[in-house]
Amino acid sequence: MVAFADRHIGPTEAAQRTMLDALGLGGAEDGPTSPVETLMRQAVPASIYTGPEAAVAESRIPAAASETEALAELRALASRNTVRRAMIGLGYYGTITPQVIQRNVLENPSWYTAYTPYQPEISQGRLEALINFQTMVAELTGLSTANASMLDESTAVVEGMLLARRASKSSSNVFVVDADALPQTRAMLASRADALGVELVTVGLAAGEELPDELFGVFVQYPGASGRVWDPTAVFEAAHLAGGLAVAAADLLALTLLTAPGTMGADVAVGTTQRFGVPMGFGGPHAGYMAVRSGLERQLPGRLVGVSVDADGKPAYRLSLQTREQHIRREKATSNICTAQVLLAVMASMYAVYHGPDGLRSIAQGVAGKATLLRDWLVEAGAEVVHEHFFDTLTVRVPGAAAEHAARAREEHGILLRVADADTIGVAVDETTTFTDLHRVALVFGGPTERAFAFVAGVSVALPEALRRADEYLTHPVFHAHRSETAMMRYLKSLSDRDYALDRGMIPLGSCTMKLNAATEMAAITWPEFAGIHPFAPADDVQGYLELIDQLESWLAEITGYDAVSLQPNAGSQGELAGLLAIRGYHHANGDAHRTVCLIPSSAHGTNAASAVLAGMKVVVVASDALGNVDLDDLRAKIAQHADELAALMITYPSTHGVYEEQVVEITTAVHEAGGQVYVDGANLNALLGYARFGDLGGDVSHLNLHKTFAIPHGGGGPGIGPVAAKAHLAPYLPSHPLAQRAEHFGGYTFDGAVISAAPYGSAGILPISWAYVRMMGADGLRRATAAAVLSANYIAERLGSHFPVLYTGENGRVAHECILDLRPLKEATGITVDDVAKRLIDYGFHAPTMSFPVAGTLMVEPTESEDLDEIERFIEAMIMIKAEADAVAAGRWPADDNPLVHAPHTAVSLIAGEWTHAYTREEAAYPVRSLVAAKYWPPVRRIDQAYGDRNLVCACPPVEAFA
Fold first, then answer.
1. What is the pLDDT of residue 327?
2. What's CA 421's distance to the chain center, in Å?
3. Bridge partners for 384 per DSSP
4. Which of residues 351, 383, 402 is at a domain's end?
5. For strand 305-309 and strand 315-319, is the pairing parallel, antiparallel, or unpaired?
6. How far apart (Å, rounded) are the C-alpha atoms in residues 233 and 244?
7. How confident is the model at residue 456, as a pLDDT?
8. Share of the chain above pLDDT 90, in %
């Protein structure tokens, strides 16, 4: 049987020998180590290098399992979870995922293996799906503009608070929080406000309690966590009179029946789209949302899809106003949001496309009607239902007996109710709730054992007449055109055909690790025992999840050299924030609250600086030297300058420049001697696994990107998971959660730090992917994957170095898992820009490498370990051919303004429509290499005018006439 590692790692042994020969290491087999180990010894500094024997000795990671064995173990873990009818609510609901969406989106690599749409010409399908999402959210919330998704509801509320603070005319630090807000949201607001100096004031808004005299914003839950539906218009008006902004967290399904928050005067609406066909998954991933009124578009965090035009003047989608994003603004950023939840946003948008406004309204009527029927049955049984008006959630008063009622519902009827307090039960109805479920709930409260009744959906709902929605929504044809499964399937196929994902070819993006997401790793995420679990289900019902989490925490701790791991952060950026807040908590506990300076190298990821600011720290930039390493002299100077207030150093290892810094231990020692802590950014862990550990480098805390190193798909910019790992002294300050099933984590640690995600274990629904990856690779397989990635990157650097200078290398002339190709000399010699090369690569059938990061005018190339030698050679050939084309421009064969590079990419229409007047031939445009004739990817649009889209901001579905 072929080992899984051999399926995962692209280059065969024979291919690796060929690559090693090109690196001059073919004869190394005669030495004491293998050629691959010789390469790794050349690349990895001796001071941190771990030999193969030590790397796997006494490992907690079991020997590699086969794919069949891993699935069997996952089945055993899944069997320890009990799937009950969850009627807990609190932002998480049972929902029906249409099979046409599950099969053609969630389980389709054309969607889940795509990258963030920074190359819009080859991302038109995903961008259209996200425009649908934005349109859906904007129209349901009654606001002008929505972004392309957030991480979850609670983080979206925090972002709403931050937006209100920067957009408000008030100088106050007070933010008013609805007493009926979701408990996890209140906890997260408290954590984040503390670091930012925001004063939270909790007010019973529905009860008519008065607002403070001064505030910069007010937050309302609509409907409330208790289920109560009321009119917050007066509260929004009062907030405006005080100079503040009004933020509403609204249930989108309820908004199909209720007046939209924008109509009532809200400036910002936030929430989750989970109940639009996305399984609960023990907490995620789910697409949060944010929408704003006109005038606040440039304040929106996250990504915003807009409409522009291509070179032929045809409509085309692209990311708008990117200068707002954290990776550009760095320490001036107002948000550190990086990974969105694109795959889940696509699912939610397609749920709306498939059902349309009438279908969504019918689902909502059914939910509200069943909730009203349950109210009637409970009142008939003598129970006290607290609120007169509600959508889907009832609060039932049972003095002193709440726990008993909940226990009976669970044990006798398989139903999970929410114990709000000793006297109060919460019951939430959703799309999946049956009449049998309602009857069983009524039985718990003393209702009759038998019942005869007739029910027609929508006959009776407990919504106030004044708040019944009267306006139309989702009027665009896309929400009316795909009712049959045939039509929906074809629509989804047409969109995926416009995209480029890993199922088409290599995505050689430096810093992003677009590796294989194996089908076996993905298999378990749709099993009901993982997908159908509420994040606040009792511990006894989630023993399989808790064991999987415990195992994964232990494996990640070993891999990184740390003592404790939290899986709560649901993006790398949130893991960064969690790690920095842990450092902040540590310093405060030691009486060092004055330590607020965070040193960050100039080459660092953009989220680093943004995360530091949101953790309440002051960013001080450290220069890089000519080799791309941290400038030690400047580091020492900055440490001396800020010694008394030094909180932390953030450093990426291997560096963002794609090299292993030789002096890393010297760097971390210098910071520790000054009383600071060391944060090692784990974005490039794919170049380190099995060969060195962050904890051994001197790291105190790190985040890891499970969506990069550990095989969770990017999904076009989400889902992501960014666990945070730390040494024992920082463990107490790792993320906590008020609704966690247990306090203990691997190693016996109890965390008491900031709440980072809405759910206790973040996006736990996709943890089986990384669990399966580690389980099937084993410690040895992980080490082999690292070596294969480094070998492939060095092979590309060697083959292309004579055509494009490799900007940075280590002391032995080697790179890590990625290399930076310098295209600035090409521009000087030929006039061809890095943009021209990136767009021309599309004609060759490739997604471009990372452009102009971390150095403008360069391409950062990362082949990963998953790409085989044939695909790597195809990329190398394309780059060499493009260099020759640029040289032809310089030589005068083609004019500077009329050549295949400046007009790239070429669509099929551009080649056949009208008379061909270019200086180059159609064949040179479309088929620069003969292999493309058999399998050509045709981009759907030509080069997009980015500036036009920002000048003419349109972020909702354009009319059909625009495409005529």
1. 56
2. 34
3. 397
4. 351
5. antiparallel
6. 14
7. 60
8. 89
Distance CA 708, CA 699 (A): 20
For residues 426-449, average pLDDT: 97
Q: Which amino acid is at 202?
A: T
Residue 458 binned pLDDT confidence (cut-offs 50, 70, 90) = low
Check whether residue 37 and residue 139 sit in a common domain: no
Instruction: Kindly state the average pLDDT of the residues 316-339.
Output: 73
pLDDT for residue 333: 67
What's the pLDDT tens digit per position in 662-671? Answer: 999 999 999 9
Residue 689 has pLDDT above 90, yes or no: yes
What is the number of domains present in the chain?
4
Q: Could you give the strand order of the β-sheet that contains 819-822, starting from the edge strand earlier in sequence?
A: 819-822, 858-861, 850-851
**Distance (Å, rounded) from C-alpha 782 to C-alpha 779?**
5
User: Is residue 114 a contact partner of residue 512, using CB atoms and an 8 Å limit?
Assistant: no
Specify whether 79 is located in the same domain as 41.
yes
Shortest CA distance to 244 belongs to which of 213, 223, 203, 290? 213
Per DSSP bridges, beta strands 268-272 and 245-250 are parallel
Question: Could you tell me if 132 and 955 are in contact, meaning their C-beta atoms sit under 8 angstroms apart?
Answer: no
- Distance CA(133)–CA(347), nearest Å, equals 9
Locate tokens 């900031």: which residue?
754
C-alpha count within 13 angstroms, C-beta hemisphere, residue 930: 0
Residue 174 lies in a domain: yes
- The pLDDT, as a whole number, for residue 606 is 73
Unique residue bearing structure tokens 């795959």: 343
Residues 772 and 882 in one domain: no
CA distance 881 to 746: 52
Q: Residues 513, 647: one domain?
A: yes
Residues whose CB falls within 8 Å of the CB of residue 923, separated by 6 or more in sequence, listed in order: none
DSSP string of 276-301? TT---GGG----EEEEE-TT-GGG--
Cβ(177)–Cβ(189) under 8 Å?
Answer: yes
Q: What Å distances lie between residue 83 and 414, 415, 747, CA to CA?
A: 8, 9, 28
Q: Give the C-alpha separation, 834 to 681, whole Å.
A: 27
- Residues 180 and 226 sit within 8 Å (Cβ to Cβ): yes
* Locus of tokens 């807040």: 581
* Element housing 631 (H / E): none
- End-to-end CA separation in angstroms for the chain: 55
Rounded Cα distance, 454 and 58, in Å: 65
Tokens of 945: 């005018």
For residue 928, the enclosing domain spans 784-950
| Distance of alpha carbon 29 from the chain centroid | 43
Q: Do you find a cis peptide bond into 928, omega within 30 degrees of 0?
A: no
List own/partner pairs for 107-111 with CB under 8 A and 24 or more apart: 107/522, 107/526, 108/492, 108/496, 109/501, 109/502, 109/503, 109/517, 110/496, 110/499, 110/501, 110/503, 111/343, 111/346, 111/496, 111/501, 111/715, 111/716
Same structural domain for residues 611 and 630? yes
Evaluate whether 812 touches 42 at the Cβ level (below 8 Å): yes
pLDDT in tens, 33-80: 789 999 999 999 999 998 876 655 678 999 999 999 999 999 999 999
Contacts of 672 (CB under 8 A, 6+ apart): 678, 698
> What mean pLDDT comes out for the span 504-525?
96
pLDDT of residue 29: 52
Instruction: State pLDDT tens for residues 598-635.
Output: 999 987 777 899 899 999 999 999 998 887 889 999 99
Identity of the residue numbered 84:
R
Kind of pairing between the strands at 145-146 and 288-292? antiparallel
Q: What is the pLDDT of residue 26?
A: 83
- Which DSSP letter does residue 678 get? E
Which CATH number characterizes residue 77's domain? 3.40.640.10
Across-strand partners of 646? Answer: 597
CATH number where 867 lies: 3.90.1150.10
Whole-number Å distance between alpha carbons of 504 and 476: 31
Say if residue 464's pLDDT is above 90. yes
